[in-house]
Design goal:
The structure is a homodimer. The first copy, chain A, is of the alpha+beta class. Chain A has six helices and three strands; from the N terminus they run H-H-H-E-H-H-E-E-H. Chain A starts with 9 loop residues before the first helix and ends with a helix.
Amino acid sequence: MLEQFERPSFSTKFPLDDLAWRFKALADPARLKILLYLANYDAGQCCPTGEGICACDFESVTGLSQPTVSHHMKCLISAHLVMGEKQGKWMYYRLDPEGFASIREALVSLGQ
Amino acid sequence: MLEQFERPSFSTKFPLDDLAWRFKALADPARLKILLYLANYDAGQCCPTGEGICACDFESVTGLSQPTVSHHMKCLISAHLVMGEKQGKWMYYRLDPEGFASIREALVSLGQ
DNA sequence: AGAACATATTGACATTTATCAATATGTTCT
DNA sequence: AGAACATATTGATAAATGTCAATATGTTCT
């Protein structure tokens, strides 16, 4: 239906439901705080220094409970904005550069 | 609270609630269809050619009712993704380049 | 094995959101 | 003025979302 109107490549490369889901992951102040923290810091406050920031740090960053933080991290991972890796009993998170590159590319195509 | 963790400029330049609101405007498949259409077409199907695309075109593009389309356009305008101009009895819409530039800049800062 | 700890999942609840039908507003004709 | 049309607003409803308390899972100690 829409295919007749658009550049043939866009919605093939960026299925709209999927893209909407990824923007939704960005559409929450708590998740933005988490991303902003990840963008600015390599080491956190609460856990031994590792590859990224560990989950418990985001409780103080956001002011939210542990289960809620866990829910937000799952959301960010499913949107490919963040990567998580378990190290011992901690989960360490860092930004997913490829996911960001992809959504940036989509935004550039959309906006012009 | 968060200021101690971030680049001083980011949340000043991009208040997080405001930024979340703008991403939320992007986080809906119907609104993405509308933006995609605006990005690809200078003239619509239903109204005399003018500066942009008129509202009624988006009903067929999205498959949604007229009030729902109107609601989505209001959302896109409040997020500074789209500009609207009334011409006679029609509303003509086009992308807002500055709004897109701003959100693109925020995304770049966030993702690295 | 058992204690202690970090994270994930489940369940419940309040809020927000997308949607449409009905109605209102505003514009351009005759 | 009144008819016809395009868009906006209101009100109602179903679905999705953010949040926390309680509980489960998984890991590392002793």
